[in-house]
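Key result, reporting period 2: structure in, sequence out.
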């Protein structure tokens, strides 16, 4: 289990509690100024320090992890019950493929349900999940496709595209992600911004330029 974190002390505890029975947990801190590292230490996670940037942190975590399978998870996401069984099924029955979890938001609003539906359609049609759905991948496949790159943004889409549509499945368990970003920025505004970033990246705009626009 590899979890990149930056000033995530308020949400990291719930994330770690949901995966407390993982064989190994590596939290990669990108220079937090809050209690992120202390929260990770109290949970018994291995702590790796890396330069800030999700791509860099994910790469560092994959290097530090010891298992033959890697499970990447965002710090503001927790996994539903049954996640270990879903992972075991994936490894046993579909070991040559990578997999993500179903997307779910921790908000009762109708906008959250609509967004979940949109994500499900995107993943079903395009096989294009984002990092907030988690990613399970064997180390062999991860290394074969080149792993996470040191990108400031779109590092998840970049890796998923190299894995390819035919080598990606959706597991039955859910990744329950914090809806705070949507509540803070506005459901429509946040969703349109995410879609704009994906569209620009698809059109060939560099992640560095997208990151500047995104900021």
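The corresponding designed sequence is given below.
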């Amino acid at each position: 289990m590899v979890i990149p974190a930056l000033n995530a002390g308020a949400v990291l505890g719930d994330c770690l509690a949901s995966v407390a029975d993982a064989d190994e947990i590596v939290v990669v801190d990108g220079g937090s100024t809050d209690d992120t590292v202390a929260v990770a230490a109290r949970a018994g996670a291995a702590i790796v320090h890396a330069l800030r940037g999700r791509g860099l942190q994910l790469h560092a975590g994959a290097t530090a992890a010891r298992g033959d399978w890697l499970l990447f998870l965002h710090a503001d996401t927790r996994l539903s019950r049954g996640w270990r069984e879903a992972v075991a099924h994936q490894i046993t029955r579909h070991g040559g493929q990578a997999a993500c979890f179903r997307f779910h938001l921790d908000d009762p609003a109708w906008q959250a349900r609509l967004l979940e539906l949109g994500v499900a359609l995107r993943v079903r049609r395009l096989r294009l999940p984002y990092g907030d759905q988690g990613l399970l991948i064997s180390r062999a496949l991860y290394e074969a496709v080149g792993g996470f790159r040191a990108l400031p943004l779109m590092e998840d889409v970049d890796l998923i595209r190299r894995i390819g549509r035919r080598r990606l499945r959706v597991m039955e368990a859910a990744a329950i992600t914090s809806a705070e970003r949507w509540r803070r920025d506005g459901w429509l505004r946040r969703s349109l911004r995410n879609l704009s970033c994906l569209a620009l990246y698809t059109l060939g705009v560099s992640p560095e330029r997208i990151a500047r626009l995104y900021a």
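The domain at 2-183 is CATH 3.90.550.10 (Spore Coat Polysaccharide Biosynthesis Protein SpsA; Chain A). Residues 110-126 form the longest helix (17 residues). This case is discussed further under Risks and Mitigation.
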